[in-house]
Each structure stands twice: as structure tokens, then as C-alpha cells.
Design brief:
The chain has about 100 residues and is mainly alpha-helical. Helix content is about 45%, strand content about 10%. It has a two-stranded antiparallel sheet with strand order 1-2.
């Protein structure tokens, strides 16, 4: 584990670059993590991030692609447009949650 400063706040990251303590997360952290991924957050991004937070709170795991589609109502094409090259991994990282189990 290591600590890093994101938008002026020190957070703890695991060796894979995901936050280890979600209580350190906030919208400014999300903006900083998104910038690291080359993403500027829009309302469409926040719809995904908010769904991840809600679903994680209910299930205790980051939702996979199928759940994002079926329960979240977010089409796969939209997820790839918003979070290119690994949408679930990138969205989970920006949302401050652990690396999804379904992602290697």
C-alpha cells in the first residue's frame, strides 16, 4: 500500500492503484482519479459512478457489466464510450471502490 495526494487530499492506494478506504473518497478525489485516466467527468459519468456506489452498498461488490446493463440500465456501448478500454475497472477505480473481482 502507498499514499498519494489527489486534488490536495492524501489517500491510501493498494498495489493495483485502487483506493483501500472508501471513506477517504469524495467527488474531488473522483475528478482527480478520472483525470489520471484521461477522463473529464460529466453527468453521464456520474450516473455510472452513483450506480456503482448504490449497488456496492447493497451487494458489497462492484457490479459487473451485465448488472450495469440490466439493473443500472447503462448500455455496454455507453460504458465503453464513457470509460474506454476497461469500463468497469476504470469506473470502479474512479468511484473509489476495489478492483472488480471479474477483472484481471
Amino acid at each position: 500500500m502507498s499514499t498519494t495526494s489527489i486534488n490536495g487530499t492524501v489517500v491510501t492506494l493498494g498495489e493495483d492503484g485502487y483506493m483501500t478506504d472508501h471513506s477517504e473518497w469524495n467527488r474531488e478525489i473522483a475528478d482527480g482519479l478520472a483525470k489520471e485516466e484521461g477522463i473529464t467527468l460529466t453527468e453521464a459519468h456520474w450516473k455510472v459512478l452513483d450506480f456503482i456506489g448504490k449497488d456496492f452498498g447493497e451487494k458489497g461488490v462492484v457490479p459487473g457489466m451485465r448488472r450495469m446493463n440490466k439493473v443500472g440500465g447503462i448500455p455496454t456501448k455507453e460504458l465503453y464510450a464513457l470509460f474506454p478500454n476497461g469500463p468497469i475497472k476504470k469506473a470502479a477505480r474512479i468511484a473509489g471502490y476495489p478492483k472488480p473481482a471479474s477483472c484481471v
